[in-house]
Write a structure and sequence with these properties.
The chain contains 15 helices and 16 strands. It is of the alpha+beta class and 449 residues long. The two termini are 41 Å apart. The mean pLDDT is 96.
């Protein structure tokens, strides 16, 4: 029996001269009444396959002709080294089996014309047209999207590896919750058996409850924000990598933020160099992000820099996307901004005892205009202080009673951060929009398909 092999291995020269079986989908097809060329793809690559009527006979040749774009087929044949073929190899077809045919009346709707769309400014907007968003379930198998999904997988793996190597325990929190973590304006309400629940904005408060048990914990889970802003970096459902750590200072937490981001960049280079190159990502930039330390800057300095650039921003504003975009355009590596004004941040941020106007927090801003990828810091940890911060904010205690309670029993200094995984993949891949890196993007304008 002929062995089924990966197309990627064939292109890597592992099966030169052998008779092999390939299972895949037709990417392109052309030819005459005597000879057909099919570009076959599987999840590992693609290869040109050639069938001559004279050698394979009429029925197999007819099958090759009928194998339309995106039909699934099994081809047997011999691997030829051929410099002229894309990838350097070609399959000389011997037998053809169509597994999942495509109806000629309903050809695969995503063609080159549909892929090459530009926005109002003439900039390419990969996958961003209404047509492609409506056909997302089919768009997933096009090469750019497939590449993004592989990069994404490597990023998830890198995050797990980083935290596990650093002795963090993976821990899960509920997604139905009773209160906000990051402010009420972006909470999704869910009817819950006659009551109202919310979709979680962050794992953090439930992780803090387990901090005295596990000390170092992390997760990768979806978070939800009823976020109306239509930017290149906002989803309503995004993947959130969060960590929480007992006894840790803002500086120690930042060191892990830097550590995990640099590890993701390094892993993409190690595992996905060809994929990054295939979407024209500058590998030197990714290497720079993997190899260099990330400087730290206080919020006040960032505001002064922005004011010096003529940006309309005043002390006390949280920095939104438009401002971070300007600030990070000229950064050569990610920068941490620390010590935001207390008035710009939620109650759980710990006040800086050296100057109570500030909190001991950080955001990590990615260069090239991408902006915030991490938010974190030290937590308000005494019961008395939490109650005071909630009252200052005018936030009711009730939904947070469990959180307040944990402080009554052996509170300790601690902290953590949340990293937007989709944002990190978007930045490291050089994507033009966050929707490029998640299979089915959820935004204020779309929950389908
Ligand atoms: O800065 P945020 O709101 O911080 C928190 O949720 C903290 N409770 C995390 C913690 O300390 N455990 O969100 C953290 C990160 C952001 O820096 C951003 O990368 C990402 O989550 N994020 C989003 N990503 C995509 N779409 C959105 N709407 C996002 N909102 C936040
Ligand atoms: Mg934030």
């Amino acid at each position: 029996m002929t062995k089924t092999v990966w197309i990627g291995d064939v292109q890597d020269g592992l099966h030169d001269g052998q008779t092999v079986e390939l299972k895949g989908w037709v990417k392109r097809t052309r030819g005459s009444n005597k000879m057909r060329f099919i570009v076959l793809r599987d999840s590992t690559g693609d290869i040109q396959c050639v069938g001559k009527k004279d050698t394979i006979g009429e029925p197999a040749f007819e099958a090759l002709k009928e194998a339309l774009i995106e039909s699934s087929v099994i081809l047997n044949g011999t691997v030829n080294v051929d410099e002229r073929s894309p990838g350097g190899h070609e399959l000389v077809v011997e037998t053809v089996e169509i597994v999942g045919p495509v109806d000629p009346e309903r050809p695969f709707p995503i063609n080159k014309e549909a892929l090459d769309v530009v926005d109002e400014d003439g900039e390419p907007m990969p996958g961003g047209s209404e047509f492609l968003l409506n056909h997302r379930h089919l768009y997933l198998r096009t090469s750019r999207m497939t590449t993004m999904l592989k990069l994404r997988s490597s990023a998830f793996g890198a995050i797990h590896n980083y935290f596990r190597n650093e002795d963090f325990i993976e821990y899960q929190a509920p997604n139905f919750v009773a209160g906000a973590v990051e402010g009420g304006s972006t909470l999704f309400e869910v009817p819950y058996f006659g009551e109202t629940a919310y979709l979680t904005q962050s794992w953090q408060l439930y992780a803090e409850a387990a901090m005295p048990a596990l000390e170092r914990l992390y997760t990768i889970a979806p978070s939800f924000r009823a976020e109306e802003s239509r930017t290149r970096r906002h989803l309503t459902e995004f993947w959130h990598a969060e960590m929480e750590m007992a006894w840790a200072s803002n500086d120690e937490i930042m060191a892990h933020g830097e550590g995990v981001v640099r590890h993701i960049a390094r892993t993409l280079l190690d595992e996905r160099e060809a994929e990054l190159a295939s979407i024209d990502r500058d590998l030197d930039l990714v290497a720079r992000y993997a190899d260099n330390p990330y400087p730290r800057m206080r919020y006040d300095e960032a505001v002064e820099t922005l004011q010096g650039m003529g940006v309309d921003v005043k002390w006390g504003d949280d920095l939104d996307y438009s401002k971070e975009k300007v600030l990070t355009q000229d950064f050569d590596v990610p920068h941490f901004l620390t010590h935001y004004p207390k008035i710009a941040k939620p109650f759980y941020h710990r006040v800086d005892t050296e100057d109570e106007k500030y909190v001991l927090c950080h955001d990590l801003l990615a260069p090239e205009g991408y902006g915030e990828i991490i938010g974190g810091g030290e937590r308000t940890w005494s019961e008395e202080e939490i109650l005071r911060r909630l009252d200052e904010e005018g936030t009711p205690h009730e939904p947070y009673q469990f959180y307040i309670d944990t402080r009554a029993y052996g509170g300790v200094p601690h902290g953590g951060f949340g990293l937007g995984v989709d944002r990190v993949v978007s930045w490291l891949s050089g994507a033009s929009h966050i929707r490029e890196v998640i299979p089915f993007p959820r935004t204020s304008r779309r929950v389908t398909p």
